[in-house]
């Protein structure tokens, strides 16, 4: 009787991919990024469903119709979800840093961005301030360039 061979451990080889690319933003994205240069945040609107989308979308996920208008989002909103990042990732700030999905006033959906101006040295205490329902406001940098990093959120009470 022959003994079956032991199953070998899977072999792996370390590797990394570094890919640079240019992302086409299209007409809807271009409208959004151009508005950021003016310190405005615009959402798309679907008149068929009365939904407003941020980040803007070309088509409505409810009616499947083309979004047919733009609306200015409010400069304040409500946190729907948030986290404090403690692990380092390439091309992102040195941790810790906070990010939140925020539904800006007048918009049906939430958009993620950094939350700045918080003391993150005590992560549990900071996380308690980022609970769903917490109000935040938008703050723009002095000279916007038409990038998502032109603005961030800060606690409205701050």
TrEMBL record:
It holds the Pfam family OB_ChsH2_C. InterPro entries: ChsH2_C (IPR002878), NA-bd_OB-fold (IPR012340), Thioester_dehydratase-like (IPR052513). Transmembrane segments: none annotated. Residues 70-140 form the ChsH2 C-terminal OB-fold domain. This is ChsH2 C-terminal OB-fold domain-containing protein. The lineage of its organism: Bacteria, Pseudomonadati, Pseudomonadota, Betaproteobacteria, Burkholderiales.
């Amino acid at each position: 009787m022959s003994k079956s061979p032991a199953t070998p451990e899977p072999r792996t080889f370390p590797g990394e991919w570094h890919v640079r690319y240019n992302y086409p933003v299209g007409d809807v994205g271009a409208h959004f990024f151009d508005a950021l240069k003016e310190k405005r945040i615009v959402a798309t609107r679907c008149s068929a469903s009365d939904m407003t989308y941020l980040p803007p979308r070309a088509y409505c996920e409810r009616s499947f119709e083309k979004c047919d208008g733009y609306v200015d989002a409010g400069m304040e909103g409500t946190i729907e979800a948030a986290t404090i990042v403690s692990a380092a990732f390439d091309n992102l700030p040195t941790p810790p840093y906070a990010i939140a999905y925020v539904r800006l006033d007048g918009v049906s959906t939430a958009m993620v961005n950094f939350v700045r101006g918080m003391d993150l040295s005590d992560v549990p205490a900071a996380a308690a301030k980022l609970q769903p329902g917490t109000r935040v406001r938008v703050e723009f940098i002095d000279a916007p360039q038409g990038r998502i990093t032109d603005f961030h959120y800060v606690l409205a009470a701050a």
